[in-house]
Amino acid sequence: MSVLVLGTFDGFHIAHRKLIKEAKKFGNKVVACTFSAPFSPVKVLTDSDEKVCLLKEAGADEVLMQ
Q: N or C: which end of the chain has fewer CB within 10 A?
């Protein structure tokens, strides 16, 4: 079974890592769905490419960028 975690995951921190770790307990695959904001007036801390790398390093099996 897959588990979906959803969030902006900007400024990837310890709670984000904990979320993915806990999600692994409920399924054999973790899919992280996050958002890219290329035209956002708000400055982001983590760009899309970095976000994907950090999510995968934390244990996400797949990352869906919206």
A: N
> Residues of the chain whose pLDDT is less than 50?
none
Report d(CA 61, CA 45) in Å as an integer.
23
- For the sheet with 29-34, list strands across it: 2-6, 29-34, 62-65
Kindly report the pTM of this predicted structure.
0.88
- Report the C-alpha gap between 32 and 59 in whole angstroms: 10
| pLDDT tens digits, one per residue of 19-33 | 999 999 998 999 999
Q: In sequence order, what are the beta bridge partners of 4?
A: 31
Among the listed residues 50, 48, 54, 53, the one whose alpha carbon sits nearest the alpha carbon of residue 17: 54
